[in-house]
């Protein structure tokens, strides 16, 4: 006969009866009434087409077919148990790892697709993939991806490498800000601000290759600090001696509590492209990396652009 789920249940019931030496004795082991046990065994015998045991005044006794069936059924259930155990082990062992790198402070951006992509990735892999995420500078990211130490990454890349594949995920808006201690913080006249901004000490992010201050041509000496991260730029700006560009989503907390001020927003605002980068040769991508890349690109195509605004 072909074995179905109901057969497995009936087989377990009959083996318990055989092990206990009778229907009455099997009640406690199975937590079933004797009438239910009898019905299950009778249904199994009808399915098999022969009698498995004798029951009555003479007591419980297996028939020759019943004895053979006990031996075969015991082997079957042991194999089934091993199968279930091995499947469970494979589930726990996991699918491998995916190595991701990002530039700093993406988490405060409401349109960054990484968080929803990771959520869907977890669902697609059943939570069995190990995820390693490092926060690095753009040059470290590109070197890591090119060498194979990083599977995929998100960052701002001023000079893309021909060895790598880049995809624009979304855009980030940078605003020019100063800290509350800075002399320009209280200036209300726009003409005076235009005049003073050009000579004010500035902090720039090194990886942008001076794209932070695209409007400077003859006053590069006003750039007196170079940093590799947004957090480092924010520290110098909050100290009160430098002005600089920060992503609007990142600066918002200090702008709203009065620790920073946006300077000439209509004139000095710049856009950065946040890009996904991975190796060009798709054959070198792991299956897990390919899944996460698809989730990122799919999310980027349907994510609307949200813009933060600040009061003057």
Tell me the structural class: alpha/beta
Q: Helical amount among residues, as a percent range? A: 40-55%
What does the average pLDDT come to?
87
Helix and strand string, N-terminal first?
Answer: HHHEEHEHEHEEHEEHEHEEH
Q: What oligomeric state is this?
A: single chain
Outline the low-pLDDT stretches: 300-308
User: What can be said about the biggest beta sheet?
Assistant: 7 strands, mixed
Q: What's the end-to-end separation, in Å?
A: 82 Å
Gyration radius over CA: 35 Å
Describe the structure.
It is a single chain. By secondary structure, this protein is an alpha/beta fold. Helices cover 43% and strands 21% of the residues. It is built from ten helices and eleven strands. Strand 1 (53-54) and strand 2 form a beta hairpin. Residues 300-308 have low confidence and may be disordered.
